[in-house]
Amino acid sequence: MSLSIIELEELARKCRVEIVKMVYRAQAGHPGGSLSEIDLISALYANYMRVKPDDPDWGDRDRFILSKGHASPGMYAILAEMGFITKEDLHSYRVLGGVCQGHVDMKWCPGVDFSAGSLGMGLSFGMGCSIAARLDGSNRNVFVMVGDGEIQEGSIWEAAMAAKHHELGNLKVILDRNRIQNDDFCESQMRMFDIPGKWKSFGWEVMEIDGHNTEEVVKGLDFLVNTNDNPAILIAHTVKGKGVSYMEDNPAFHGAAPNDEQFRVAMEELGEVIA
Amino acid sequence: MSRMAATRDGYGQALLDLASNEKVVVLEADLGKSTKSLHFRKAHPERTVSCGIGEQNMLLTAAGLASSGYIPFASTFAIFTERAFEQMRNGVARPNLAVHLCGSHGGTHTGTDGSSAQSIEDLAIFRTLPNVIVMHPCDDVSTRVLTTKLASVNQPSYTRTARNKTPVLYDGREDEIEIGKGIVLREGGDVAIIACGVMVSEALKSADELAGMGIEATIVDMHTIKPLDTELVNSLAKKCGAIVTAEDHSVIGGLGGAVAEYLSSNIPIPLERVGVNDRFGESGQADEMLELMEISAPYITKSATRAINRK
Q: I need a labelling partner for B42 at 20 to 30 A (CA). Which of A3, A30, A137, B8 fits?
């Protein structure tokens, strides 16, 4: 199946509703980075990932590694839409014994390929998956989503260097450039200057898009899957908290839940009718 | 005089033994010449991943390979495995991926490179991680056998090897070596000395010294620190009533710590721990380091008599 632009936008909207509901129910979690990434990963799963929701451990599946593992509500929302988990499972977010652990965990949740939660680790893990695919003679892809604050971790650059050294053309990174990290705007925490230039200088193919413009998202994901000679990175310029007015571009909603009134406003803005 | 060899050579040999298994892959961080994975690299470059001088990336690349059905063996100096501790914790141990990490040049025995290269805390830190097997074999034969066995173990491991040569104990005795089972090398009823790695041969020397004093010691090679062979420790405690541990590692948290934890909860008998006494080393020859750290055979002997006197 391949969804149209309008269908992709509706899918992302539904995911946004679930993201906010999860964080509201748990009264904890990370809405901002989930809302900034969701247009990208929902389109990725809907139109690009070769996976089998009824056989989540299928060996030759494409891998998706959410390295910014705190943005788990976004991933759980699309996994539920795809049928890896149920809508009921979303109620287990941050609940004892739940498949939806605070940070995505491959031991707990079907469809999760990497146990995240510590930043800077997913790209290296993805490298291992890429090398395995090559050794298997498989053309499966490995997608890794990293945050912009996350690339302040030094080991990201160990992996960036190594991926080019090993010519891992099946390794595809999406960078969620939402400009906000835990404490504040990235600019105040650690200026990163020329991010595209840094990746280019490491030998990567680079494309920049507006991560909320669905047509650009599709072009960007096309670029990733069609770039097979070099590791490739899609730098998606996004807005943290996208879709909920008071969360947008607001560092306070990196890791905070809405209260009752804020929740009501969010549902209204996302076009969700609450009985 | 017995044959002398370095445990790291046993590791290199084991990788060659395992090479016929197409799922075995080797990862290096620019120290393959030292850890001895270079032999595998030469024979199977297509299944060897150079990670440059980047241990954190190496550990997680190994984890990704393990998650995709491969059996990765990654090595660097013991001290540099510590740099990737959190990768081992969060990326390997937590999802229980069977990544096999080897730290060579462990302990003060590594010698003249000095204190920056002398890991004295690796066994302790990796022992704290759920799911992780921790081993420190004493000769090349047991290292080869234990490393080979790891390929069929479905959980991660850390194995410390040593740079310098030590006496070979297990030529022709390969069948006695099992992960998680200590090996009794000498029987005696007065005191039990439980050692690992380069200290096993020191413990055997100490047993001779003790015999000269009329004291009979049981000597155990506890090559697996986790899971600890508690059945054996229990029987030694009952039989001898006093135990000494000996390791080229901090007295905090390693073999001595593991034995102390078991004894204190189950059969509290006198225990003396011979190890590096919460300090750093310096440059020196291997034998000089064991003297400086006060862990060579005479110090084990002294500790044994102290343990016996506390009965």
A: A137
Residues contacting B267, CB < 8 A, separation 6+? B234, B237, B238
Contact between residue B97 and residue B156 where contact means Cβ atoms under 8 Å apart: yes
Name the catalytic one among B28, B55, B202, B247: B55
Of the partner residues B52, B60, B66, the one whose CB lies closest to the CB of residue A124: B60
> Residues of B near A (CB-CB distance < 8 A)?
25, 46-47, 49-52, 54, 56-57, 59-70, 72, 86-87, 90-91, 94-96
Structure confidence at residue B1 (pLDDT)? 57
Q: Which residue range forms the structural domain that includes residue B153?
A: 4-167
Are B156 and B188 in a shared domain?
A: no
Chain B touched by A141 (CB under 8 Å): no
Q: Which backbone phi and psi does B4 adopt, to 5 degrees? A: -110, 140
List the single residue in A59, A124, A129 with the smallest CB-CB distance to B56.
Answer: A124
Q: How far apart are CA B42 and CA B50, in angstroms?
A: 12
**Comparing C-alpha atoms, which of A170, A110, A172, A104 is closest to residue A144?**
A172
Report, in angstroms and rounded to the nearest whole number, the Rg of chain A calculated over CA atoms: 17
Q: Touching check for A114 and chain B: CB below 8 Å? A: yes
Contact B70 A135 (CB under 8 A): yes
Give the total number of structural domains in chain B.
2
- Separation CA A270–CA B231 (nearest Å): 62
What whole-number distance in Å separates Cα of residue B188 and Cα of residue B240?
8
Which pLDDT tens digit goes with each residue over B16-68?
Answer: 999 999 999 999 999 999 999 999 999 999 999 999 999 999 999 999 999 99
CATH of the domain at B237: 3.40.50.920
What pLDDT digit, counting tens, does each position of A166-179 carry?
A: 999 999 999 999 99
Q: Is the pTM of this model over 0.90?
A: yes
Buried b (16+ CB within 10 A) or exposed e, B97-126: bbbbbbbbbbbbbbbeeeeebbbbbbbbbb
Candidates A134, A155, A165, partner chain B, best to mutate (most B CBs within 10 A): A155
CATH of the domain at B110: 3.40.50.970
Q: How far apart are CA A120 and CA A131, in angstroms?
A: 19
